[in-house]
Amino acid sequence: MRLVFLGTPSAAVPALEALVGAGHEVALVITRPDRKRGRGSSLSPSPVKQAALDLGLRVGHSMKELEGLDADRGVVVAFGALIPASVLAHTPMLNVHFSLLPRWRGAAPVERAILAGDERTGVCVMSLEESLDTGPLHAQASTDVDDKSAADLLDELARLGAALLVEVLGSRDLLEHPVLQVGEPTYAEKLTSDTFHLEPSKTAVLLARTVRLGRAFFFVAGRRVRVLRGHVVASHAPAGTLTYEGGEVVLHAADGAYALDEVQVEGSRAMGANAWWSGARLSPTSSWS
User: Fold this and answer.
1) What is the pLDDT of residues 23-39, one digit of tens each?
2) The CATH number of the domain where 171 resides is what?
3) How many helices (H) and strands (E) does the chain have?
4) DSSP symbol at 136
């Protein structure tokens, strides 16, 4: 099948590679423009662009390049921008979405599933519509959330979605007979800095879920501390207290507490929580926010 592919982050790369591996002709890859990634002033390509170049595919950055292009279908995986109705009218598109629709329509379905404590989540291949994640479903696959990090869960879903996409494109029945979404929709709002801020007003379970997203932080003694790993423990101090007890550095929260295993202070390397505590010179009972 002759396809166009629209995607940007690393989560979209397995689908692109799977399409090529299955023998589909990817006539054009549209991805977000090169940008600064990390330190330095040089521009770097998106993961999808780099993968496309490695595969010898034509790459563009504007949907205008789809005008006049002959393709059977488009495939969209985490592209990062809405597809205009005019483009969809010309080229019908499939979308790989990382949730069990209609649960978690929107920008951050994996993270919202973790924060909500969902036991299972999954991936869907749907027909793309102009409205947000409302299209009928061609296929879906599910997996346990367990205690997986957002990065690990997304990686798993990306692989599941790639295989599911190839299955749909290879099945006339799945491709031509999608089914309507059933159930009450929920919306995965975009993540903000507040999403990752560990605060004493949150429960210990929510602190643990937030750490699994990968960018969690709190403040103590005027310094911002990232939390890389930890675990829930019982609390024996008021919420907002940071203590060192039983060989563990503990954030006491609204309901329970969260013991720190690995942290990273601004401008420093990642380290064990005990090593950080030894060098931080905090009082045995400090305040955190």
Assistant:
1) 999 999 999 988 876 66
2) 3.40.50.170
3) 9, 16
4) P
